Amino acid sequence: MLNPRLASRYAKSLFEIAVENNKLEEVKTEVEFILGIIKTSPEFKSLLLSPIIKPDKKQAIFREIGKDRFDPIIAGFIRLLIAKGRESVLPEILGTFKDIYNELKGIHKVKFVTAQPISDELRSSLLEKFRLDADIEHIELATEVRKEIIGGFILEYDNKLVDASIQRELRAIKRQFQSNEYMYRIR
Fold first, then answer.
1. Which H or E run contains 152?
2. Are 120 and 158 in contact (CB under 8 A)?
3. pLDDT tens digits for 46-79?
4. Cα distance between residue 139 and residue 131, in whole Å
5. What pTM did the predictor assign?
6. Residues 6+ apart with CB under 8 A from 135
7. Which residue pairs from 48-54 have beta carbons closer than 8 angstroms and sit at least 24 positions apart in sequence?
8. Distance from C-alpha of 70 to C-alpha of 63, rounded to nearest angstrom
9. Mean pLDDT, the chain, whole residue set
10. Which letter does DSSP use for residue 54 in this model?
11. Distance between CA 48 and CA 88 in Å, rounded?
């Protein structure tokens, strides 16, 4: 994160304005939309970070993206960020906004990483298992595919990590061989 305190301050302000105007759900939807663009478009993220691209050009791009879509709250917020030269912190601000929203609504983030994409059936059973085992009602499940884990899965939730990947097992075996645990037992 570039500047967590700055991101937190702006995110809280956006959140409070959305609540005051009774538009929290609309703003949250638009925050997710913008985060989706940032996540899927490296060019867009580069645009935000670029000091070379002039603020008026960035404003025009955001106007085009949000044309007939953005609520005046989010449109004004983005204009303010660009005017103050803070658009590079937008991903962190919006991520912090989502964290505040999730905390208020009791939504728990769960990240499930596999080597291959998971089916909708497995996704549903994972959600159900979490609801029952962890007694968590509202879950935001994010899935990620990382081929380097080879197999198994990595699960992250509530600041906990369960690494049941083949990659972790292979690293553990490698450490055992490097520390000569097997050679010691043979002698």
1. strand 152-157
2. no
3. 988 898 999 999 999 998 988 888 899 999 999 9
4. 8
5. 0.77
6. none
7. 48/87, 48/88, 48/90, 48/91, 49/88
8. 9
9. 89
10. -
11. 5
